[in-house]
Every structure is written in structure tokens, then in C-alpha cells.
């Protein structure tokens, strides 16, 4: 995949990894079609990409809306003449137990994190094939490798993205059409997803969407969006099937290879220990 003079479409480009990818690609001479529901953030991303002798277009797009995504894909080709890569990056967070998660919250998350990926892939894939070369980049997560308590909905979506993109890659290999795909598994990335997510009031976990949890998540997140973007683009250049982003992603991958009974017991023990350490001490004075 050559980025210079290519046209790259990115969802969730208003912040985080999406913004970092847009800026890095603009520096490499790629033309950009950017989308997000956050119009303020999207405008800032566009401003940071312009002035580099590349064409940048932007649209407010809700990736859960299939018609909107397909309409955007057609508009991108009309504006740029072609498109060579789609990065399905838009995502949201939800922390709630499997029992407590409401159907509305579950559908909200799946609409963006899973169906948004499917919509983006199906909308852009014919255009990538028409261009004669292209790449589909779908963002999963380390939570698409290992399941975590209070993240059942997020796990379901990210495991779904992993399975969907793995199957897509095999299909593209068989078609030999000049288009390929890569599944991305970021670990803790310093983005605003924790602060902008939803949480059940009875749940207190890192990344749940509250201010305190957002601050704690930022302390634990080890990888900047800029480093993540650079690693993602290297993975695309090398046509890798899967990319682990961040040292914690490597750990999650190793844990995923353990027998399930072992990995789940280790995880449960770690969570119990963390909960006990978080309890206030008892004074015996």
C-alpha cells in the first residue's frame, strides 16, 4: 500500500487514533475523506491536516446509519475521483454487567462498534476494487482477544470485528482483486473513549466513562494515538493480517493463547485482588 497520492477515508476522525492517522497520512501525502459525529473535533482535525498540498474533505456521518455510510462512500468517490483505503475506526465504550446492560445501550454500542465496521466495509469495498488496489483497516481491540467482566457488550462487538475481518481477509485472498484487509487490536491508547462512554451506575471499572475512571484510564494507557497511528500504517504497508498496538496488547495476545480455564481464573483473581486493595483500611485504634 502506497499512501502518497492515495485517497484514505477514516471514520471517527474527530479525535484519538482517527485524528492521529489523518495527520500522519496528510504528512505522507495522502488525500483524506474524514468523518465523525463530533463536528467540532472533526473541524479541528481538518484544520490540522490542511496546508500540506493534499485534498481534505469532511462529513458528519453516524456509522450506525447504513444509508448515511453508503451515501458518504459515494460522495467520497465523487469528490476525490477514487478511494484506496477505508479505516473503520469509530467506536464507543460501555461498562455494565451482562445482566444489567440495557437493550438500548447494547444496541447503541453494537450499532457503532460492530455494524459501523460492517457498513464501512461494505460501502467502500466496491470502490476499492474499482480503483484496482486498496486496503480495509478495521479497528478491533485487545478486548477482541480476551473477555473482561463488565465489558460483555464491548467484547461482543470487538470479537465480532475480529471474526468478520479475518473472514474478509481470506475472501480477498481468494479473489486476488488487489484489495486486502488488516484487523487492528489496540491496547490502552490515550484517547477520550473512556470519558465519552456509558456506564451502569452499579459498575466501577476503568474505562467506564466517568470522570474518575477516565483519569485512571489515562494513567494506565501506555500508547499515544500518534504511536498507534504509526504502527497501524506500518502494518498496512507490510500487509499484515493482524496488528497488536502497544505492549499491553502483546500481553493480552499471550493471555488469549492460554487454556481458557487458566486465563479466566488468573483474570478473576487479579480483579478480586484489585478490589480488595481498593477498599479503605480498617483502623484498630
Describe the structure.
The chain is an alpha/beta fold and 285 residues long. It has a single domain (7-276), classed as 3-Layer(aba) Sandwich (Rossmann fold). The protein is 50% helix and 14% strand. It is built from ten helices and nine strands. The protein has a seven-stranded parallel β-sheet, with helices on both faces. Strands 5-8 form a two-stranded parallel sheet. β6, α6 (152-175) and β7 (179-186) form a beta-alpha-beta unit. 46% of the residues are buried.
Pick out its properties.
single chain, 285 residues, alpha/beta, Rossmann fold, seven-stranded parallel sheet, two-stranded parallel sheet, 9 strands, globular, disordered C terminus
The CATH class: Alpha Beta
The CATH topology name reads: Rossmann fold
- Give the amount of beta strand, in percent: 5-15%
CATH level-two architecture? 3-Layer(aba) Sandwich
For the record, the count of structural domains works out to: 1
Low-confidence stretches: 201-218, 278-285
Number of strands: 9
What structural class do helix, strand and pairing data support?
alpha/beta
Average pLDDT figure: 89
